[in-house]
Amino acid sequence: MSEKELLDFCRVKKIFDKGFGFLASLYYEEPVFFHFNKVKDPDIKVKLEKLKRGEVYFFFTSVFHNGKRKVLKLWLDVKDIDKNLIPDFVERIIEEMNGGKINVFETAYVIKQLRENNFISKEKLEEILFSKKISKTPSVLKAIISNNEEGLSKKIDEAIELLETKKINYADFAEVVLRNFYNEDGH
C-alpha cells in the first residue's frame, strides 16, 4: 500500500557542501533527506546555487524509501504546486497554527504565499485568525500581508491597537481584520 502524497514545507537553513541536506517536516519526526542531484528544473538549480541561509522555502512531497524519508517532488513557489495537494496542506497549516512546533513567522510566510495565490478562503482565514498562535500574538498577521497591501497593514495596526487597549474584544478584532482582508465595508 502506498502512502498518501502530502505537501510539506521547510525553510532551508543550511545545505552541506556536498549538495545534500535534511528538511524538517510538518508530518514526520524523522528529517527528510534532500540532494541537489534530484533537482531537474534548471531554474530551481540556479536559485539553489545562490542560496543564502534561511532565504529559501522548499515546498515538497516525500516518500519513505530504503529506510529513510526522501524528497519526492520539490517546488520553490506555491503557484507551481499541484493544486490537488493544496487543500490538505491548508488544513495542516491551520493545525500548525494551533499548536505546532514550526516558528510562527515561517508558517505566516507560507500563509502569505497561499493568500497571494488565492488558496486561502475567507473561512480558512477566519480559522487562522482564531488559531492559538495568532490569538496569542496578533501582530503575526502583518507577516501574511502582501507587499502591495500597505493600506491593509495600517488597518491591521489600528485593529491591534484597539485590541491591546481593550477597546474591542478578540471576536470583534477578528471581524474587523476579516472585513479589511476582504475589503468589506460596515461594522
How would you describe what is shown here?
The structure is a single chain. The protein has seven helices and five strands, in the order E-E-E-H-E-E-H-H-H-H-H-H. With 187 residues, the chain is α+β, with helices and mostly antiparallel strands. The chain folds into two domains: 8-76, Nucleic acid-binding proteins (OB fold (Dihydrolipoamide Acetyltransferase, E2P)), CATH 2.40.50; 87-181, no CATH class. The protein has a three-stranded antiparallel β-sheet, with no helix packed on it. Strands 2-3 form a two-stranded antiparallel ribbon. It starts with 7 loop residues before the first strand and ends in a 6-residue tail after the last helix. The relative contact order is 0.11. The mean pLDDT is 88.
Shape: elongated
Domain count: the total is 2
Low-confidence stretches: none
How would you spell out the order of helices and strands? Answer: EEEHEEHHHHHH
Instruction: Please describe the biggest sheet, giving its number of strands, its sense, and whether it closes into a barrel.
Output: 3 strands, antiparallel
Say how many strands there are: 5
Report strand order across the widest sheet.
Answer: 1-4-5
Our estimate of the beta-strand percent is: 15-25%
- Helical content class: 25-40%
SS-based class: alpha+beta
Helical stretch tally: 7
